[in-house]
Amino acid sequence: MDPAACSATRQFGIAVQAGGLEVFKFKIPGMRLCAPLGDIKKVLPLMELQPVPGAPRYLRGLMNLHGRSIPVIDLAARLGYGGYTHCNLETPILLCEHEGLQTGLIVDKVIGIETLEQDAWQQTSAFDNAGLLLSGTVQTQFGLSQVLCMERVIAVDLGGTHKPVAPGDGDVEESA
Predict the structure, then answer these.
(1) Bridge-partner residues for 136, per DSSP?
(2) What is the DSSP string of 43-105?
(3) What is each CA distance from 156 to 14, 61, 78, 133, 165, in whole angstroms?
(4) Do 54 and 162 touch, CB atoms closer than 8 A?
(5) Cα 87 vs. chain centroid, distance in angstroms?
(6) Which residues, given as ranges, of the chain have pLDDT below 50?
(7) Domain ranges of the chain
(8) Three-class SS of residue 151?
(9) What kind of architecture, by CATH, is found in domain 3-153?
(10) In this structure, are residues 120 and 138 in contact, taking their beta carbons and an 8 Å threshold?
(11) Smallest Cα–Cα separation from 69: which of 57, 86, 51, 87?
(12) What pTM was computed for the model?
């Protein structure tokens, strides 16, 4: 695990062990997730997204939020889990901010906020590999949840050659 990710994971684990850490819980198709509440700024309704030519397929586009362009990531596609989120007018976008970087995450469903108990953190050696987008698991009221490694999830890879999402691909739907 790289030192920055190791430090963030260690800090999250220490905060959970101390008790009283609040997390924001949500779902993508087939997976329960959570993130530190401090990383989630708002839940927004789906809005029109401007495409980014040549971007990775998980980058669904840019949203205009009060005159500022914010990248919007399809979290299911970013995690390589279950393909792309089917978007409609009820699809939530989580406005996230980590170390000054803002990104929107398209999720399937918002569950709510929970304060974790001291023994909730259950990191395993499976999460010790460098590059993972998840940093461990926690026991929540609705069962085990994967913890997002927010600094990795919101880092958009623009370095490679990507097949752009074209109108009519079937993964992107028009929004109102």
Answers:
(1) 147
(2) EEE----B--TT--TTEEEEEEETTEEEEEEEHHHHTTSSS-PPP-TT-EEEEEEETTEEEEE
(3) 27, 11, 9, 12, 15
(4) yes
(5) 16
(6) 1-3, 5-6, 160-176
(7) 3-153
(8) helix
(9) Beta Barrel (2.40)
(10) yes
(11) 51
(12) 0.76
